[in-house]
């Protein structure tokens, strides 16, 4: 014995005018595309039916953990497990500058008061 649902499903799949109009109405009720459209229009429908990006938690709260990553890299560099070539270069230039006697001396600003006055 067929249930009412299976009778309805068979009726929708039929090619009668009534079946076509019922399928159209069903699609409108359930928020689907009512009239068959081409692939370009379906792409637009798919974009608009997707969740808005400003409500997507994965996009809103995506900030790489720069501070923690930097501290981790410094610690790994201390242990010798990570090679920071830029920092190595800066340290080597500082060492060579000290060997030449060209150590930077920071001068006070003109407007500052001295401790003697």
Automatic annotation (TrEMBL):
It comes from the Eukaryota. It is found in: Mitochondrion. It holds the Pfam family MRP-S33. Its main location: mitochondrion. Keywords: Mitochondrion, Ribonucleoprotein, Ribosomal protein. GO terms for cellular component: mitochondrion; ribonucleoprotein complex; ribosome. Belongs to the mitochondrion-specific ribosomal protein mS33 family. This is Small ribosomal subunit protein mS33. It comes from Parnassius mnemosyne.
């Amino acid at each position: 014995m067929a249930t009412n649902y299976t009778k309805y499903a068979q009726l929708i799949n039929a090619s009668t005018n009534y079946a076509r109009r019922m399928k159209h109405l069903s699609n409108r009720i359930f928020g689907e595309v009512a009239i068959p459209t081409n692939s370009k229009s379906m792409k637009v429908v798919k974009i608009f039916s997707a969740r808005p990006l400003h409500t997507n938690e994965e996009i809103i709260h995506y900030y790489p953990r720069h501070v923690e990553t930097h501290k981790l890299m410094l610690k790994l560099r201390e242990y010798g497990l990570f090679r920071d070539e830029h920092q190595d270069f800066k340290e080597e230039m500082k060492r060579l500058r000290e060997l030449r006697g060209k150590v930077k001396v920071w001068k006070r600003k003109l407007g500052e008061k001295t401790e003697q006055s």
